[in-house]
Design a protein that fits this description.
The chain is of the alpha+beta class. It is about 45% helix and about 10% strand. Helix 1 crosses helix 2 and helix 2 crosses helix 3.
Protein backbone atom coordinates (compact mmCIF):
# COMPACT_ATOMS: atom_id res chain seq x y z
CA UNK A 1 0.00 0.00 0.00
CA UNK A 2 1.25 3.43 -0.94
CA UNK A 3 -1.62 5.67 0.19
CA UNK A 4 -4.84 5.67 2.22
CA UNK A 5 -6.78 5.19 -1.02
CA UNK A 6 -5.16 1.76 -1.37
CA UNK A 7 -6.60 0.78 2.01
CA UNK A 8 -10.04 1.88 0.84
CA UNK A 9 -9.67 -0.28 -2.28
CA UNK A 10 -9.24 -3.32 -0.03
CA UNK A 11 -12.84 -2.75 1.09
CA UNK A 12 -14.17 -2.33 -2.45
CA UNK A 13 -12.54 -1.35 -5.78
CA UNK A 14 -15.22 1.27 -6.46
CA UNK A 15 -14.42 4.39 -4.39
CA UNK A 16 -18.02 5.25 -3.46
CA UNK A 17 -18.77 1.68 -2.38
CA UNK A 18 -15.46 1.49 -0.52
CA UNK A 19 -16.38 4.57 1.52
CA UNK A 20 -19.82 3.11 2.33
CA UNK A 21 -18.32 -0.26 3.28
CA UNK A 22 -15.65 1.24 5.51
CA UNK A 23 -18.12 3.61 7.17
CA UNK A 24 -20.37 0.68 8.05
CA UNK A 25 -17.44 -1.41 9.24
CA UNK A 26 -15.98 1.25 11.57
CA UNK A 27 -19.28 2.75 12.74
CA UNK A 28 -18.74 6.24 11.34
CA UNK A 29 -20.89 8.41 9.09
CA UNK A 30 -20.26 8.03 5.38
CA UNK A 31 -19.44 11.73 5.02
CA UNK A 32 -16.79 11.45 7.72
CA UNK A 33 -15.10 8.50 6.03
CA UNK A 34 -15.35 10.26 2.66
CA UNK A 35 -13.43 13.21 4.15
CA UNK A 36 -10.73 10.76 5.28
CA UNK A 37 -10.36 9.55 1.71
CA UNK A 38 -10.31 13.10 0.26
CA UNK A 39 -7.78 14.29 2.86
CA UNK A 40 -5.62 11.20 2.45
CA UNK A 41 -5.48 10.60 6.19
CA UNK A 42 -7.37 8.79 8.92
CA UNK A 43 -7.41 10.48 12.34
CA UNK A 44 -5.48 8.68 15.06
CA UNK A 45 -8.63 8.31 17.17
CA UNK A 46 -10.15 6.08 14.46
CA UNK A 47 -7.17 3.82 13.85
CA UNK A 48 -8.28 1.03 16.18
CA UNK A 49 -11.71 0.55 14.54
CA UNK A 50 -10.11 0.74 11.08
CA UNK A 51 -7.48 -1.88 11.99
CA UNK A 52 -10.20 -4.16 13.44
CA UNK A 53 -12.44 -3.72 10.37
CA UNK A 54 -9.53 -4.44 8.04
CA UNK A 55 -8.62 -7.57 10.01
CA UNK A 56 -12.20 -8.84 9.69
CA UNK A 57 -11.79 -8.50 5.91
CA UNK A 58 -8.44 -10.29 5.91
CA UNK A 59 -6.33 -7.16 5.38
CA UNK A 60 -3.29 -7.00 7.63
CA UNK A 61 -2.62 -3.42 8.69
CA UNK A 62 -1.14 -1.95 11.84
CA UNK A 63 -0.55 1.48 13.36
CA UNK A 64 2.92 1.72 11.82
CA UNK A 65 1.40 1.28 8.36
CA UNK A 66 -1.23 3.95 9.06
CA UNK A 67 1.49 6.34 10.21
CA UNK A 68 3.34 5.76 6.94
CA UNK A 69 0.21 6.12 4.79
CA UNK A 70 -1.27 9.21 6.44
CA UNK A 71 -0.49 12.53 4.77
CA UNK A 72 0.61 15.31 7.08
CA UNK A 73 -2.37 17.30 8.29
CA UNK A 74 -2.96 20.67 6.69
CA UNK A 75 -3.06 23.67 8.96
CA UNK A 76 -6.57 25.03 9.25
CA UNK A 77 -7.73 28.54 9.97
CA UNK A 78 -5.80 31.78 9.97
CA UNK A 79 -2.11 31.97 10.53
CA UNK A 80 -1.42 33.30 14.01
CA UNK A 81 0.03 36.77 14.23
CA UNK A 82 3.50 36.23 15.56
CA UNK A 83 4.13 38.44 18.55
CA UNK A 84 7.05 37.57 20.78
CA UNK A 85 9.21 39.72 22.99
CA UNK A 86 12.96 39.40 22.93
CA UNK A 87 13.62 40.66 26.47
CA UNK A 88 17.36 41.04 25.95
CA UNK A 89 17.18 43.32 22.92
CA UNK A 90 13.78 44.84 23.76
CA UNK A 91 12.51 44.20 20.27
CA UNK A 92 9.31 42.52 19.21
CA UNK A 93 9.00 39.95 16.50
CA UNK A 94 5.91 40.55 14.37
CA UNK A 95 5.08 38.50 11.32
CA UNK A 96 8.58 37.09 11.09
CA UNK A 97 10.38 40.44 11.21
CA UNK A 98 12.00 42.22 14.13
CA UNK A 99 10.74 45.73 14.88
CA UNK A 100 11.50 48.16 17.73
CA UNK A 101 9.44 47.34 20.80
CA UNK A 102 6.53 49.75 21.34
CA UNK A 103 4.41 47.66 23.67
CA UNK A 104 2.36 44.54 23.15
CA UNK A 105 -0.48 46.14 21.21
CA UNK A 106 -1.40 44.55 17.90
CA UNK A 107 -1.60 46.52 14.71
Amino acid sequence: MQAIGDLFQKFDPTPSKAVTEMAAAVGEKRDTVYRWLKAGRIPETSWEPVIDAAARRGVEIDAATLIRLNRPSKRRGRKPKALALDSVKKKAVRGGRVVPFRGLERR
